[in-house]
Structures are given as structure tokens and as C-alpha cells.
Amino acid sequence: MTTAVILGMGGLGCPAALAISEERPDLRLVLVDPDRVDRSNLARQILFRDEDVGRPKAEVAARRLRNAEPRVQRFDEQSAPELLRDAEVLLDGTDDFATRFLANDQALARGVPLIHGAVLGWTGQLAIILPGRTACLRCLFEGPPPPGSMPTCAEAGVLAPLCGLIGATMGLATVQMLDEKKLFFFWGAPEPGVLYRWDARRGCERPLPLKRDPACAACAGAASYRERRS
Amino acid sequence: MPVTVKIPAPLRPLTANQGEVAVENAGTVGAALEELSRKYPGIKDKLLDDKGALRRYVNLFKNDEDVRHAQGLATGVKEGDRLTIVPAIAGGWS
Predict the structure, then answer these.
(1) Which regions in chain A score pLDDT beneath 70?
(2) Do B10 and A199 touch (CB under 8 A)?
(3) I want to staple A124 with a disulfide (CB 3.0 to 4.6 A). Which of A149, A198, B33, B87 is the partner?
């Protein structure tokens, strides 16, 4: 069974998982999150209800979806090999830079396509990264910022409807990625190797084409996802 | 016509919440950032490190071109160009 792994069942992971589950019920979803539902999550984490407060997010989300399996654990170097072993696509909706760069590196090393989504305040972004074929997160940024240098969601806030928009687009990108006929590539869906950006006060911003960095260590060690599938 | 600098949300507190700022054509990306910094003190520290290089978690695009793949801060700009500041953002989980 085709497997999609989602890191972070938060503001992005919830709408992404719901969209994928409804569109591709044949898919196996692996939901990774070590946290528990907090009452402050409920406005944007649409799989959770009032009675779920205090329960593990991954478990609650898995119960509400088709073919989803919970993993109440962190994504780190120790857990990555098992979590990504069967992954055909990885969705990253996490909230800390270290995990995001680790997800990038682990996905590339294993030839797993990565759907990168992020939101902060009024803005959101999305990129589809194909190992060995498109630019990766480290081609765009050399590394994560030191703690305190950039605001977090807790500091800058996050707009709940924008989470739904970016998360659902991550779901669309996943369906597109796993569509063997690749029909979606011709229908104006997100293209790999492009940074899509949204500003909730302006609408969609101009997409930025991403160039591969010839000196990128993560790309240098990337396994081609097409080779992996063959 | 000046150069337009697109300011990302995390840095807008430094530009009086403006998402787009016009600076006079300064010839290069670096000079445009200097001009931006003169108008909005404090933003330069967010973009450049102690050695004056672009911080590793911030990127700049001149129109559709990643300046890291051009001449970096020495990349030429002309009137009408658009500079887009793209910082790494991480939100989504919590």
C-alpha cells in the first residue's frame, strides 16, 4: 500500500491529512506527532474537538481518518529510518527549524519526495522537493536560524484559515505526487522546485523558481526518487 | 522608478508594517539593502551577519533570480527591479 508520512498533526498536518484521506482512501497515512491536543489548538487543527484536549494528537487524528496510523513520537535521526522506510512521500508541517532541516536531509538521503509547508502570521509557503531533481531546503537556506532570531508561531501568531489553505495545498501536492498519470502537473497544481507564497492580506504572491545549489551537501547525497521507485 | 523591496511578515514590524518598500536605485543588491536600512534602522541586522554577508537563513531574490546563484550582494539592480526577502519560516505544528 502506498504510504504518505505526515510530520506534525497541527495547523498544517490536520487539513493536509483530511484532504489526502478523502481524496485517496487507498493510501496509508502515517501521522507523526509527540504532542497532545491543547485547547488553544482547536481553532485551526480541524481534526480535534473539545473532548480531545489532553489526548495525543496523532491518535485522535488517526481515529478520525481512513487508513491512518498514529506515531506518538518525535521525528529525529533515530526514528527517521523506521518512519520513512515505506514512505512514498513526506509532508512536513512541523514548527521548529531543526526538525525541518532534518526532514529535508532524511527525505533526500532516502529519495523520498518532500512537501514542505509553513505558515507564520499572515504568510505561508509551500515547496515540492524532488530528491536529486529539484532544489531542496538547504539550496534555498544554508541552514536553520539560531534560536530567537526569527519569530515562532507562538510569538507571531498564525492565521487559522491560512493553515487550512496551505495544508489543503500540501494535500493537493501529495495527490499530484502520487498520481501515476501525472495529470495534475498539467492542471496548474503546484510544480516541484518552486517556492509558492501566500500573504493572507494580498492573496497569492509571485512564485519563486528555486535553483539547485551545486555545493549543497544534502543534494549531493540524495537518492533519486525515480531510481528508488524503479 | 525605484527598486521595490518585498518585506516578509516577520520583518514588517521594522518597516512600520509595510509589505512593500521603495528604495532609490543603488546599483547593487547590497547597496539597496543599505538604503533600506537607512530608511528602516534595524532591518540590516536581520538580513546580514557580522561580516556583512547574507544570513544563512535568509534569501533574496532579484525578480525571479536567487541572488546566491548570481553575484550575491554584488548582484546588479536597475530601476524597476523587485527584491524579495525570503526568510526561513517554520510554523505549522503548534
Answers:
(1) 180-188, 225-230
(2) no
(3) A198
